[in-house]
Amino acid sequence: MSIRTSVLLPALLSALLYASASHSQTLTIAGGQTIGSSRTEHDAYRMEANFAWKPEFWAKGHWALSLNHALGIVTFRDRNNVNAISWAPNIVFAPRTRIGTYPYLQLSFGAAYLSDDQLESEADQASVSPAVTEMGSHGQFESGLALGLINRQFSIRAKVYHYSNASFAHNNDGMDVMEFGLSYSF
User: Fold this and answer.
1) pLDDT band (50, 70, 90) for residue 99
2) Euclidean distance between CA atoms 85 and 13, whole angstroms
3) Which residues 6+ apart lie within 8 Å of 138 measured at CB?
4) What is the mean pLDDT of the chain?
5) Of residues 79 and 33, which shows the higher confidence score?
6) What are the backbone dihedrals phi and psi of residue 13, each rounded to the nearest 5 degrees, phi first?
7) Distance separating alpha carbons of residues 161 and 185, to the nearest angstrom
8) Which helix (H) or strand (E) holds 45?
9) What residues contact 159, with CB distance under 8 A and at least 6 apart?
10) Cβ–Cβ contacts within 10 Å for residue 85, how many?
11) Were both Cys, which of 43, 52, 76, 181 would link to 82 (CB 3.0–4.6 Å)?
12) Torsion over CA of 149, 107, 181 and 76, rounded to 10 degrees?
């Protein structure tokens, strides 16, 4: 890990923890793994703070859209450990009347910074060399789709998200992640 990354990530983590403790709408803790087209098999752990931006900016009948933004910290664990910080505006589709348990759908797109541009997994029995996902750059785009259930202040969600540099760098393997999370709303 470079000196720049070793200083930057703890500072950003501290800022996110402070922001989530003092001003956040929802704090999520999640875990999962890389899936699909990803060449590596990293375990993923995420902490995310969602902040209200434009509550109910569109409504029709029983349904409404709201605009939020999320700050996230993710760590990917395997042969090499890669940390990421992200900011992603998101649109939430949910019922207007929020009584009892109700579903929501969340679509997000934002930017992320990875501490390393390569993710390595341990070699399997058929191969001598480790599997490598080449991200091409530290700067990435993050897009995601989440489906969840909310009951009062607590919620659960399943989320699929993707990292890619959109071919701004030579290598662009991209990475897909599936996670499950628990959230608490303040």
Assistant:
1) confident
2) 8
3) 113, 114, 115, 116, 117
4) 86
5) 33
6) -60, -45
7) 22
8) strand 43-60
9) 30, 32, 106, 144, 145, 146, 147, 178, 179, 180, 181
10) 19
11) 76
12) 170
By the 8 A CB rule, do 118 and 132 touch?
Answer: yes
Smallest CA-to-CA distance from 117 within 174, 79, 72 is with: 174
Are 148 and 103 in contact, with CB atoms under 8 Å apart? yes
Give residue 130's pLDDT. 78
Query: Which residues constitute the domain of residue 147?
Result: 3-185
112-153: pLDDT as tens digits: 999 999 888 876 656 667 788 889 899 999 999 999 999 989
Instruction: Fill in the amino acid letter for 68.
Output: N
CATH of residue 22: 2.40.160.20
For residue 62, give both structure tokens: 């029983």
Query: How confident is the model over 142-182, as pLDDT tens digits?
Result: 999 999 999 989 999 999 999 999 888 878 888 999 999 99
Average pLDDT value for residue range 79-88: 94
- The total domain count for the chain is 1
Q: What are the beta bridge partners of residue 105?
A: 93, 147
